[in-house]
UniProtKB/TrEMBL annotation:
The protein's name in its UniProt record: Cell division protein DivIB
Domain of life from the UniProt record: Bacteria
Keyword 4Fe-4S: no
Coiled-coil boundaries: none
Transit peptide found in the keyword field: no
Provenance organism: Mangrovibacillus cuniculi
TM segment ranges: 28-45
HAMAP family, per database record: DivIB
Keyword entries, A-Z: Cell cycle, Cell division, Cell membrane, Membrane, Transmembrane, Transmembrane helix
BP-aspect Gene Ontology terms: FtsZ-dependent cytokinesis
Amino acid sequence: MSEKKIVQLEDRVPKLKVQRRRRANRRFYVLVLILSILIVGVAYLQSPFSRVQAININGNVFLTDEEILGAIAISPGDSIWSMKKEAVITQLKEQPEIKDAIIERKLPSTLTITVTEYRPVAFVMEESEFVPILETGQPLTKGSDAIQAIDAPLLSNFKDKAVREKLVEELSKLDSSVRSSISEITSTPRETDPYNITMFMNDGFEVRASILTFREKLNYYPTIVNQLNPDIRGYIDLEVGTFFKSYETPQVEGEGTNEEESSE
């Protein structure tokens, strides 16, 4: 029995040596791979490829690329990996025109910044100039070239700032196609309703309403107008229910008709 055990051990010794050699080789190769990765990584970080070489900006209409670049603490030549996305986004959102931003690294050395700007929802007249009002209620003071393409109503006679801010808030929630059909909104406050307004539409109709309730009702405006005779001018009253009154006669057509019925 002892001779058999000795023979078996002698047979296993070469196999054990081979296994140990293989394990040693694997460790060596792993070590070489790790060192190679470290060397390549250090070389990359020291090379121009790890530096920002281009910054692409998308989505901006009112702010120029230069204005956006001036708002962030990063420029070509900075490390593309030292940039903290959240910090840059915070810097961008400090601009009153910017609602949000997305920043992407595109290797080897490009940054892409996509911004979302607040929408202009109205105009006001200040010193003989039309000034757009953003959905936040802030005036838009930049982007003079793009202002020409804004389709929004003019606000007039709004002496109460809180009333105007409430109107801007409601306009921002209004369907854009309906909002663009309004030419002008005039504040016509009453003792019983300081939020009363008169809207002059692009199609020639006049709409009287309250800021507190007009948004829900005005979304039905296209349906309401389709039921009216375009040759008869008058105003649509949305203050209580929904009805049309001609300027020529005191006759009321469809009095008591609400917006749901008008939309049928």
